[in-house]
Amino acid sequence: MAGNKKTPLRKCVITNEMKPKKELIRVVRTPEGSVMIDHTSKKSGRGAYITLDEEVIKEAKKKNALARHLKVEVPIEIYDQLLKEVKP
């Protein structure tokens, strides 16, 4: 029974799909109000998970969805950084 460890699931804020945490990337608004990509998923602040897919990131940029979820203006550089991480 010790081997039955649950994989943590998180919901993508764009597709509303529940996926394993490792398939998503977290964008966080820190308590100071800055926005950054959280690779560790441990930074404090309000977070939003997004699927590591080019089309999903482009849709998020077009709809400005991360700004709505994080309740702060998200710089375009964050979306560009996400796109760079998706592309090989």
TrEMBL record:
NCBIfam families: RNA_bind_RnpM
SUPFAM superfamilies: YlxR-like
CDD domains tied to this protein: YlxR (cd00279)
Gene3D superfamilies the record matches: YlxR-like
Domain YlxR span(s) in chain numbering: 10-83
Name by which UniProt lists this protein: RNA-binding protein YlxR (DUF448 family)
InterPro entries linked to this entry: YlxR (IPR037465), YlxR-like_sf (IPR035931), YlxR_dom (IPR007393)
Native organism: Evansella vedderi
